[in-house]
Amino acid sequence: MVGAATFSPGKAFAVTAIELVEDGYEVELEDRRKEGSCPACGSCSVRSYGWHRRTLQDLPIAGRAVRHRVALRRWSCANEQCSRRTFTQADVTVFQRYSRRTLRFNDIVLHMGRALSGLLAECFFERLGLSINDDTVVRHLSRETEEKKEGPPPRVVGIDDWAWKKQHSYGTIMLNVERNTVIDVIKNEDGQFAMPSPASLMYRCLGLTRGLFLQS
Ligand SMILES: [Zn+2]
């Protein structure tokens, strides 16, 4: 048997209610952390100052979507010199500060984007009953590109076309095949479903690697 705790995305959050609604489960979560760290000054606080409510989408369970309604504890900063009087604190093992989805959900969005590109990933998510559009997928890929520009150059590069918006805007994605990471997402401004010129691609690739091998 599994209990209500199965629905919790992390140890800091207790499940207080679960409701089966038309499009999935709505799970009420309560923040059980005993202290918070002010994002402005770093002071630790144990003075609770009410609650902040937010919604997080999580991975589906048994084919049903899961939406968390989280009561995050709001803290009063203990530092009288601090510019922040109150604050809430994200649990970095569960979600990022301004994200509307859990980290594990975003991880799946990223994997789907790498494997299927934006529109196909959107179709796949729709079959799973999840509302993720291609713009969201592309945003995740672009963010990963920014975060992973450091490191050794790629040896094997995969290149593929994809549609940002069907019949309107197309682009090209470049992947590090060995690491399964995105190197770059290039938007073709002319709206044509065509790769950038070979010279243009070579110019970009030569800036990244030596002894290039193109795999499409
Ligand atoms: Zn503070």
Structure write-up:
It comes from Parvularcula maris. This is Transposase family protein. Pfam families: Zn_ribbon_ISL3. The protein is an alpha+beta fold and 216 residues long. It has 2 domains: 11-99, no CATH class; 109-215, no CATH class. The protein has helices spanning 103-116, 118-127, 134-147, 198-206, and strands spanning 13-21, 24-31, 36-37, 44-45, 48-61, 64-76, 86-88, 156-165, 169-176, 181-188, 213-215. The strands form 3 sheets. Strands 1, 2, 5, 6 and 7 form a 5-stranded mixed beta sheet that branches. Strands 10-9-8-11 form a 4-stranded mixed beta sheet, with helices on one face. The chain has a two-stranded antiparallel ribbon with strand order 3-4. It starts with 12 loop residues before the first strand and ends with a strand. The structure holds zinc ion. Residues 38, 40-41, 43, 77, 79, 82, 84 line the site of zinc ion (ZN). The site of zinc ion (ZN) has 8 residues, from loops.
Keywords:
single chain; 216 residues; alpha+beta; 5-stranded mixed beta sheet; 4-stranded mixed beta sheet; 4 helices; 22% helix; binds zinc ion; Transposase_Znf; Transposase family protein
Task: Walk me through the topology.
Blueprint: E1 13-21, E2 24-31, E3 36-37, E4 44-45, E5 48-61, E6 64-76, E7 86-88, H1 103-116, H2 118-127, H3 134-147, E8 156-165, E9 169-176, E10 181-188, H4 198-206, E11 213-215
Bound molecules: zinc ion.
The largest sheet, given as strand count, sense and whether it forms a barrel, is:
5 strands, mixed
Q: In angstroms, what separates the terminal alpha carbons?
A: 47 Å
List ligands, each type once.
zinc ion
Give the helix/strand class: alpha+beta
The quaternary organization reads as single chain
Radius of gyration, whole Å: 22 Å
Domain Transposase IS204/IS1001/IS1096/IS1165 zinc-finger: 35-79
Organism: Parvularcula maris
Pfam families: Zn_ribbon_ISL3 (PF14690)
Protein name: Transposase family protein
